[in-house]
Design goal:
Blueprint lengths: L6 E5 L9 E6 L31 E3 L12 E6 L18 E3 L4 E3 L1 H7 L10 E3 L1 H20 L13 E4 L13 H19 L2 E6 L2 H15 L10 H15 L3 E5 L12 H11 L4 H8 L3 H12 L2 H12 L6 H7 L5 E4 L5 H8 L4 E4 L9 E5 L14 H5 L1 H4 L1 H13 L1 E5 L6 H23 L10 H4 L6 E7 L2 H6 L4 E7 L6 H19 L17 H16 L10 H10 L66 H6 L5
Parallel strand pairs: 1-9, 2-4, 2-8, 8-9, 10-11, 10-14, 11-13, 12-13, 14-15, 15-16
Antiparallel strand pairs: 3-4, 5-6, 5-7
Helix pairs in contact: 2-3, 3-4, 5-18, 6-7, 6-8, 10-11, 10-18, 14-15
């Protein structure tokens, strides 16, 4: 690719993200954990004779068996065959740096602390062979994928290939004790590779703590470098505005078919053409049908297929999915309560369920006690009989589904609606928003025409123009659409000057949503987790230690107070572990039974006697050189011996 790639950060399930290739971690025994959810697709794999920590470490699944075309392609990579040694100084965190002068292996935090003076700073230090071994596995994966996709068009119609991987080694791979150090080292490698090779990378984690830690590392690098250079200044302002609304609880999503396109689902025209062929129509008839209004075309196909039930089931079968798009993965990570969609597929639901959200699907389930709900305006593949597609369905919509329309109208008035992948052309939506427009604008008009209140007596709020109902994210600039919706919806175009291809515009939308998710992320799940100590700034570390002292001194009787549950909830959001309760998947430190690994037990009590002298920029010394030049990430220095054995990026 001519332009640099982008590193996306996704809170989700790596195995369900629609991408060209993804890393399936294993170890020196070629163990595939069931939690990756692909065991039903993988045939038993016999370990090659040269498979070892120092030998062969990567396998293409397609070299072993056939793989479903609709599934993202996994590459089996050994990134779990060794275990990081423990830091010799703190004896708690995994060692990532070797000091030749002291012949000592240190974690990144202790390395910075012990070498924070002019003399010690001159010590010869380099990444340990252990941490380099993990990064080497990532390079092997990148280089193999690069060769395989050099002449292959991107899967799912993206502008360029998307490859995905987890934070390697931090599940059961042996690097759990230094997750923070791995965040720094791996993210540096990802930036370098995307800059050089032009592929897009998605760093995916199902754990809140890892997702939050990666976003923190991003924020440190973003102080010096523009990680979203593809976005104009105005687009960044819009993303920040929408992220602020999400943080404040004032945003609701409205999703159209465009959010599903990057996962291989057809657009309306292609779907109708496929259904017409399925109905036995000739190519000439297919061409005629696809030139008709979509609602009328659907009616013709319905007749050809033999009725409404046949059409509905054919549609449901075609748009059923097992993976979700990058757009849906990014949107699922944004914290909000309500979502509306005209889509039949369950792509957004899959993305939400992947991160453990209790999602209610309206009108099929109550929304009283869920984390989030989604309203399926036009039906769902799980209920084909409810699918709205023909003109007859649309004409009867207001009669059959007035309650659903009422929910949408209420949210248009009480929230700011963000339209993604939705063209604002749907007839039912036009009817719904017109009723809201007439109601709200009538109130404003009455106020304007009322002779009882002089203009000078009106409050500032009454003098303001009516607030717009929402924002539409469009791919290209369309002055006519903007003029049509100027009083109701802000239209934000990804390509303000209309000089990008359609696929480039779609990629810009993905980057926009990545930036919006970054800006809206407020989780602090990493703060009290010792695995991420290296990512803490002095103020954060002082807060963590103070809270630790408070908990240590807190009498058992105080913990019985009902109010302690509120305190406990806050502490859990900051990564604190309650030793009296079982650990969840998000809290699992990688031991087989979910218990705290023995070498980590002492790390739960902060060292209050050792003063911290870390500077706020220390964690950026390797990953973020201070310069105003474009980002050029340097490879970590290695010894001559390691250079001989390592695999480097071309």
């Amino acid at each position: 690719q001519n332009s640099p790639g982008h590193v996306f950060v996704v809170h989700g399930d790596l195995s369900k993200l629609a991408c060209d290739a993804w890393m399936l971690p294993t170890d020196d025994k070629l163990t595939i954990e069931k939690s990756w959810g692909v065991s039903h697709l993988l045939k038993p794999v016999q370990k090659p004779d040269d498979w070892s920590n120092d030998g062969r470490r990567i396998l293409r699944v397609t070299d072993l068996q056939e793989w479903p075309q609709e599934q993202s392609l996994p590459y089996i990579v050994n990134v779990g065959g060794i275990k990081l040694p423990i830091c010799a100084y703190c004896e708690a965190t995994g060692a990532t740096t070797y000091c030749h002068n002291d012949d000592t292996k240190l974690c990144l935090s202790c390395d910075l602390k012990l070498h924070d003076n002019k003399i010690a700073a001159q010590h010869k230090r380099e990444p340990t062979k252990d941490i380099e071994w993990y990064i080497e596995g990532a390079r092997l994966f990148f280089d193999t994928v690069k060769k395989d996709f050099a002449r292959v068009p991107p899967k799912f119609g993206r502008e360029r290939p998307l490859i995905a991987l987890p934070l390697i080694g931090t599940g059961k791979g042996g690097a759990q004790v230094s997750a923070g150090g791995m965040v720094v080292a791996l993210f540096r490698e990802l930036l370098q590779w995307t800059q050089n090779e032009g592929f897009d990378i998605a760093l995916v984690s199902i754990k809140k703590s890892i997702f939050a830690a990666i976003q923190v590392q991003r924020s440190r690098i973003a102080l010096e470098h523009d990680l979203w250079s593809e976005l104009s200044a105005s687009l960044k302002v819009e993303a920040e505005r929408l992220a602020s609304l999400a943080r404040e609880g004032g945003l609701v999503l409205f999703l159209g078919s465009g959010v599903s396109s990057s996962a291989g689902l057809p657009n309306w025209g292609d779907l109708l053409a496929e259904l017409a062929r399925k109905a036995g129509m000739t190519e000439e008839e297919v061409n005629l049908v696809t030139q008709m209004n979509y609602l009328d075309a659907a009616r013709v196909i319905e007749i050809k297929l033999g009725g409404s039930a046949a059409l509905s089931h054919a549609v449901a079968a075609r748009v059923s999915v097992t993976n979700y798009s990058l757009v849906c993965g990014l949107l699922a990570g944004i914290s909000l309560r309500e979502v509306i969609t005209t889509n039949y597929n369950r792509m957004y639901e899959l993305a939400c369920q992947a991160i453990g959200l209790d999602l209610a699907v309206l009108p099929y389930a109550p929304a009283s006690s869920c984390d989030r709900w989604i309203l399926k305006m036009h039906g769902c593949v799980s209920h084909p009989e409810d699918i709205v597609l023909t003109r007859e369905h649309y004409m009867r919509y207001s009669t059959n589904r007035s309650a659903l329309s009422g929910i949408v109208q209420s949210l248009l008035i009480t929230r700011h609606m963000l339209f993604v992948g939705f063209s604002l052309k749907d007839d039912n939506f036009h009817r719904i928003i017109d009723e809201v427009r007439r109601s709200v604008r009538k109130t404003d008009s009455t106020r304007e025409e009322s002779p009882k209140v002089e203009h000078s007596q009106r409050t500032a709020k009454e003098s303001l123009p009516p607030a717009k109902f929402g924002t539409q994210l469009s791919l290209s600039e369309n002055s006519i659409t903007k003029m049509l919706w100027t009083q109701d919806v802000d239209v934000v175009a990804m390509d303000e000057h209309d000089h990008l291809s359609r696929k480039q515009q779609a990629r810009t939308l993905e980057i926009f949503l990545d930036y919006m998710l970054y800006q809206s992320t407020t989780t602090t799940r990493f703060l009290m987790n010792p695995q991420y100590d290296v990512l803490l700034e002095p103020g954060q570390r002082a807060l963590r230690d103070s809270l630790g002292r408070l908990l240590s001194d807190l009498p058992k009787l105080a913990k019985t107070a009902p109010e302690f549950e509120l305190v406990k909830k806050l502490l859990l959001e900051m990564g604190w572990k309650d030793e009296n309760e079982p650990m969840t998947d998000d809290e699992d430190l990688g031991t087989s039974d979910g218990a705290i690994a023995p070498e980590l037990k002492k790390s739960w009590q902060p060292n209050y006697d050792s003063p911290t002298k870390l500077k706020s920029s220390d964690c950026l010394k390797d990953s973020c050189p201070k310069t105003s030049e474009p980002l050029k990430v340097q490879s970590p220095t290695t010894s001559e011996e390691e250079k001989t054995d390592s695999v480097t990026t071309d």
